[in-house]
Amino acid sequence: MPTVTGDFGSKAAITIPAGQQPSGQYVVHTVSEGDGATVAKGDWVTVNYTAKDWTSGKDLASSYDSGQKPQLYQAAGGQLVPAFDQSVLGKKVGSRQLVVAPPAAAFGAQGNSALGVGAGDTVVFVLDIMESVPQDSTIAGTITQPPAGSPQVKDNGKAAPTITVPPGPPAPPADLQKFVLVKGDGKQVQSGQTLVVQYTGVLWSNGQQFDSSWSHGGAQALQVGTGSLIKGWDQGLVGQTVGSRVLLVVPPSLGYGDKAQSSVPANSTLVFVIDILEAV
């Protein structure tokens, strides 16, 4: 069995036993157990990792290396190799896991040339489970309502919040409006990060809901500040803090403009409530 030195939250040193060859068995061993929540299937888990190719003896890229960042994915979601996908299930946040991954649980008979893993190599991973966000997560706390004339928000616990557009309604604002309903004390959101969010969107014109993460699987992972979202989200979420619930009133110029999108008519002002659950 390989040995691991170093503390949780820092790059591990992995030592391969001298004279031994990989056994071909998939092994998951807890090096140190955390005291956080237990990771369940479908949770958005954030993992830092160190890796070594057992077959070649080479150290592989690590999320602790300069310019790298943790891996964010849904546990047992089938998006990554089984060494990541399955080995975190039932483990606690704050745990360090040693994973010995034969080809079937790593990169198979083809290997991974980009990572320097040869065809059929066994890979050893050390995974630090940094965070886990269940799909039904929401932001709790007393809501600070926006000023009169702005949409108001009612918290519904584990269900989507209710957004009430001002009666009438009055003419929508021409510029982006941002209101922090619950202020989180987490890290500040930076452009280029991937966020885990819950969100609900309604039309300013009639208060009708047109989209909600609660209606299609719960918390979603979205990249902010790179142009993959509407401009109102990029401008409204960068600089906020993890743990915040934010209300955005997005004018057409920062939304979908003069093009209709499914149930959103052209030139619509949009109102969103967004819970920022994680940023990686």
From TrEMBL:
> Annotated Gene Ontology MF terms?
isomerase activity
Q: What is the E.C. number? A: 5.2.1.8
- Domain spans labelled PPIase FKBP-type: 42-133, 192-280
Q: Which UniProt keywords apply?
A: Isomerase, Rotamase
PROSITE patterns in alphabetical order: FKBP_PPIASE (PS50059)
Instruction: Name the chemical reaction catalysed here.
Output: [protein]-peptidylproline (omega=180) = [protein]-peptidylproline (omega=0)
Family statement drawn from the similarity comment of this UniProt entry: Belongs to the FKBP-type PPIase family.
The entry's protein name is Peptidyl-prolyl cis-trans isomerase
Its source organism is Kitasatospora kazusensis
